[in-house]
Design a protein that fits this description.
- By secondary structure, this protein is α/β, with parallel strands linked by helices.
- Among the domains are: 125 residues, no CATH class; 167 residues, Rossmann fold (3-Layer(aba) Sandwich).
- Helix 12 links the parallel strand 12 and strand 13.
- The longest helix is centred in the C-terminal third of the chain and has 23 residues.
- InterPro entries: CoA-transferase_III (IPR050509), CoA-Trfase_fam_III (IPR003673), CoA-Trfase_III_dom3_sf (IPR044855), CoA-Trfase_III_dom_1_sf (IPR023606).
- Keywords: Transferase.
Length: 461
């Protein structure tokens, strides 16, 4: 595989992409990444990391085509497109307006953010009602940013983190990298590859079908985007959600392209039975919920129901370990792992200039891992588990190498997008969003179909 020429300081993004999935079947196609960090005022190599993740998915897509008898191709990724991929929610419109303004509750995101505590900082999430209620119960205040900020200063960061999580919410104290490395949750993830692929059961070799069946049991960004990527390249993706826990409309618009959406409540035995039937016909199960295994749909349960399945788990802190019961978001991974303090100045934490990082990296890395596992299944047989954690992604980006603050201080923040966009009309109206920043022999990647409203499809293949 050819790569871009690495700098004397860091390996190139293309070289990094080549090492992400070392046990995948070989790929003869080549990857070229145009451009490299630093592009924005971040001490982290966020463009190179995203370029590598996109490139890894492109290589596995090309490798799958090679397995089916096609010749090798030249894959292209632009670092500027990688930056815009991380900013996709800020570059998307629905019905002619910024998709972020399409909100059932305009205050849902307003109270999310870093808050000072008595001894440092914490990031609090109030996006969903139960998360908002947990924060407000612990702090004994109304859901007003000023009051939340005032009450947070009365707590030690770690004590508030524990109290909010124990109350059913999500939060993360802002730690240094050294503190995260010494923490039990950090030690649990230390040393793991950013994409873990393991054989979890026996099954005869199965060729990868032309039309993959992907069961998408996810919400928010990372899991839904991973499934959307597979759907964009031809998979039949059926997204499952509970009618009383829907994602916001804007989130569905951002992540639902080309999917069918059905309601299933796994607390109901009959509907859980229908899910088992769907699993029996699936090639891939993408999961982002913490309670799935307890209902029989963890990787082991899936492999028993459907020998040969590939199960992709996307969690913040991992499906096991000391923080397995804690939920998490992109920003919380940045906060806990040291990333946010490294992005900030003078001890004040900050998110990267793209605002999002781990969700989109995890999505592309997870989708690449799924294709690699499917290719291995075709040769070796077996059922497979692919695992990506947001905290692991954040740590991986930190370990790619860093610039000094002085080296990036004068770089401009991301401005107008350079990536192309496409428009698609559907039941939500006209969606305009960035294309996939990936080319094959100079030709652009496929385009996703329109997003559909939740609950509008039958629970069937």
């Amino acid at each position: 595989m050819t790569t871009t020429t690495p700098s004397a300081r860091f390996p190139s993004a293309a070289d990094t992409a080549a090492t992400l999935l070392p046990d995948a079947p070989p790929v003869r196609s080549t990857l070229r990444v145009i451009g490299s960090d630093p592009l924005v005022p971040s001490v982290h190599r966020i463009a190179d990391a995203m370029s590598a993740a996109i490139g890894a998915f492109g290589l596995q897509t090309a490798g799958l085509a090679e397995d089916r008898g096609r010749g090798p191709c030249a894959i292209g990724v632009r670092a500027t497109d990688a930056i815009d991929t991380l900013r996709a929610p800020f570059l998307t419109t629905l019905g002619g307006v910024d998709v972020q303004t399409v909100a059932e509750d305009p205050t849902a995101l307003a109270n999310n953010g870093f808050h000072r505590t008595a001894d440092g900082w914490i990031f609090l999430i109030t996006t969903y009602p139960h998360q908002r209620d947990a924060v407000c119960r612990v702090l004994d205040c109304p859901p007003l940013r000023g009051r939340i900020a005032e009450e947070a200063t009365r707590w030690r960061a770690v004590d508030l983190e524990d109290a909010v999580c124990d109350a059913g919410g999500v939060a993360a104290a802002v730690r240094t990298g050294e503190q995260w490395a010494a923490h039990p949750a950090g030690r649990h993830l230390a040393g793991r590859p950013v994409v873990e692929i393991e054989r979890i059961g026996d099954a005869a070799p199965l060729p990868v079908p032309d039309r993959l069946r992907v069961l998408d049991d996810t919400h928010v960004i990372a899991g839904p985007v991973a499934a959307k990527l597979l759907g964009t390249f031809g998979a039949d993706v059926l997204h499952v959600s509970r009618p009383d826990l829907p994602d916001p409309l804007a989130m569905v618009a951002l992540t639902g392209g080309g999917k069918r959406n059905t309601w299933l409540d796994l607390r109901d035995p009959a509907q859980a039975g229908r899910m088992r039937e769907l699993v029996g016909g699936a090639d891939v199960f993408v999961n982002a919920y913490r309670g799935t295994a307890a209902r029989g749909f963890g990787p082991a349960g899936l492999a028993a129901l459907r020998p040969g399945i590939v199960a992709l788990d996307l969690h913040c802190w991992g499906a096991d370990g000391p923080w397995a019961a804690r939920g998490g978001f992109d920003q919380l991974a940045c906060s806990a792992t040291g990333f946010a303090l490294e992005e900030g100045r003078d001890g004040t934490p900050s998110l990267p200039p793209t605002h999002l990082l781990n969700d989109y990296l995890a999505a592309w890395l997870g989708a690449a891992g799924v294709l690699a596992a499917l290719r291995r299944r075709a040769v070796e047989g077996g059922s497979w588990r692919v695992r990506v954690t947001l905290a692991g992604v954040c740590t991986w980006v930190r370990e790619l190498g860093m610039f000094t603050a002085a080296e990036v201080a004068d770089l401009p923040r991301p401005g107008a997008a350079t990536i192309a966009t496409h428009a698609v009309d559907g039941p939500m109206g006209r969606l305009v969003e960035p294309v996939l920043g990936l080319e094959f022999d100079g030709r652009p990647a496929p385009l996703p179909g329109p997003p559909q409203l939740l609950g509008t499809a039958a629970a069937t293949w």
